[in-house]
Amino acid sequence: MLKLAKLLHHRGFHVTFVNTEYNHSRLLRTRGDLAGLPSFRFATIPDGMPPSDTDVTQDIPALCESTRRTCLPHFKGLLADLNSTAGLPPVSCIVSDGVMSFTLDAAADLGIPEVLFWTTSACGFLGYMHYRDLINRALEHDVLAALSAILPPVYSIGSLSLLSHNQITDPALKSISSSLWKEETECLRWLDAKQPNSVLYVNFGSITVMTNSQLVEFAWGLANSRKPFLWVIRPDLVAGETAMLPPEFVTETGNRGLLAKWCPQEEVLNHPSVAGFLTHNGWNSTLESICSGVPMICWPFFAEQQTNCKFACDEWGVGMEIDSDVKRDEVEGLVRELMEGGKGEEMRRRAAEWKTMAVEATTAPSGSSVANLDKLVQALLLSPCQ
């Protein structure tokens, strides 16, 4: 969402980026002052959840219910304040996360257009639309065509990471980031010392949680593979307790493994030493891996991640799935296959092909994502309010 906001600002729009008070306070702790730019400012609304100053992921079902019930009046109040503030242009369009459906009522009250930004994969979103008739045999192009028939118009503008990298040149705008954890950039220096295509990157995202026994199974699977790894372990990765690894594991892997609380993922995935990605298949992580030409070992957790996993493994040829009841022997075997096996080599070849297509789609002037972003700006954001 923040990348899209930066791209729209780059196209000349005044942006007010609205976050929840909880997430904004976490950003302040990890990023420092969020002063923004004269025409790119930050604002907050409460999410209705009990106050907390801990750095943990909120309960997602409870958060969704709370935002649905409580956020609309706060959001309307914020819009009224923006429209009455001297020196600020009136709000002429709302671009909202697709799950923040309460914003539709606010846009209708003001008589302004709204864009719903769905951050899932197209195949995952189509699954939401058709629980009883899941279309699971096509690639993203065909899925987007099906979506267009259901909800026209659909603008495919990914990858926003590549679009932002290619189009945004203002250093101040580039520096605006949304990481909720402090990134440990020293991991990049550690990767610099490794051989090309020798390291497995492990990160289960910002929301996924697991049991302590699952954490231990992953740990010993990585250790027994004897392959170098960079493993991101959030403090709240284990549900209800602090993530703790066996001391024997730390001793065993100290010379070939690096543990971090968070890292600059896009830079890691694009590092030449990284050969594979053990992931939860959240769409951001999946897309960043594809755009970096890195094959995946997939352990989906919730939402549309199972659909992303299926497409990565069965349709796009860039993934291998771990059973939900994870066991160390399976982890070891899949890591070895990815890093040194024939299937792993084929997955790297396919991943490189997808990377080429992603780069072409986000490169001006003929890239499809560039053209679709232009259409979005021209057709909706620059149109007169209806």
TrEMBL record:
The keyword Ion transport does not apply. Pfam families: UDPGT. GO terms for molecular function: quercetin 3-O-glucosyltransferase activity; quercetin 7-O-glucosyltransferase activity. Keywords: Transferase. InterPro entries: UDP_glucos_trans. Belongs to the UDP-glycosyltransferase family. This is Uncharacterized protein.
